Amino acid sequence: MEYTPLGRTGIRVSRLCLGTMMFGAWGNTDQDACVRMVRRALDAGINFVDTADVYAFGESERILAKALKGRRDDVVLATKFGEAMDPDAPLRRGASRRWIVRAVEDSLRRLETDHLDLYQLHRPDPDTDMDETLGALTDLVRQGKVRAIGSSALPAEGIVEARWTAERHGHQPFAAEQLAYSALARHAERAALPTCGRYGLGVLVFSPLNGGWLTGKYRTGAAVSPDSRAVRNAEHFDHADATIRAAKTALVEEFATIADEAGCSLPELALAFVLAHPQVTAAILGPRTPEQLESQLGACEVQLSRETLARLDALVAPGTDVNPADCPYPRPAPRA
């Protein structure tokens, strides 16, 4: 396993990060199996684990507490706040000071720890001033409850605004950004990744397998498992739109050929692709089963040649997305 600094924090993290969105009611309901996956990842050298309060509405964090007993000091533990914890409770969400000071205590209690190594704003909150958010997060750092703070899915202009706000008001700046990036969805290369590089932010990549497309389970002529996300949430994972589905299926066949010729599996190729970007710190794995975890652990050993990267560029041009909807921050239409 390779390790690298998380931005300029001085914290060294594994280049593979274990994501736990699929732990609990949203994915694998066998908590003991989830605990075993965490421990398998740690034994493989992963020291970076990412979760969120909203994942199965706290269950993922509680599972992690069980899995990390006796090993907490060996793990860089990250969680997130901001998404709605109760659809009927408008105050239990967002990036206000009021919610942050409650949300962090809830996460600390569920995770059974006295501090978080990385506390991240899960999504931008247009209703809350960035000064309010950073002020509350800075207080958590000074209180010792949080070691570093980060954001997720901020557009490049949001990253710049957050840095400007921190410098102007003397707040703790975001140390890391978590963004979507894969060989099929490359919008982050246009602005977000260069901006992270400009400010020395650590970069965590979520959805490096593009919602399962780059696992190899969606192939031409292959039957789709009835418990897959392609069936459970077809519209979100690009299986409802026939044009997008056909385009991604054809590209997956091309990528599979490239993976075979590079001597690796398709998931390893996909993960090695995002890890090859000089701004990327770690790729987040999101396994639901032990088999999925095992299929991804070897990605750090794969080094893609310039020729292989050029072939991938020829299939999906840098900065572009096969499905425009994969970009979480579309450009607003100009005013008339």
Automatic annotation (TrEMBL):
MF-aspect GO terms: oxidoreductase activity
A Pfam family per the record: Aldo_ket_red
Domain of life the protein comes from: Bacteria
Domain NADP-dependent oxidoreductase: 15-316
Gene Ontology cellular component terms for the protein in this record: cytosol
SUPFAM superfamilies attached to this UniProt entry: NAD(P)-linked oxidoreductase
UniProtKB keywords: Oxidoreductase
InterPro entries reported for this sequence: AKR (IPR020471), AKR_Detox_Biosynth (IPR050523), NAD(P)_OxRdtase_dom_sf (IPR036812), NADP_OxRdtase_dom (IPR023210)
UniProt protein name: Aldo/keto reductase
Species name: Embleya hyalina
Lineage, opening ranks: Bacteria, Bacillati, Actinomycetota, Actinomycetes, Kitasatosporales
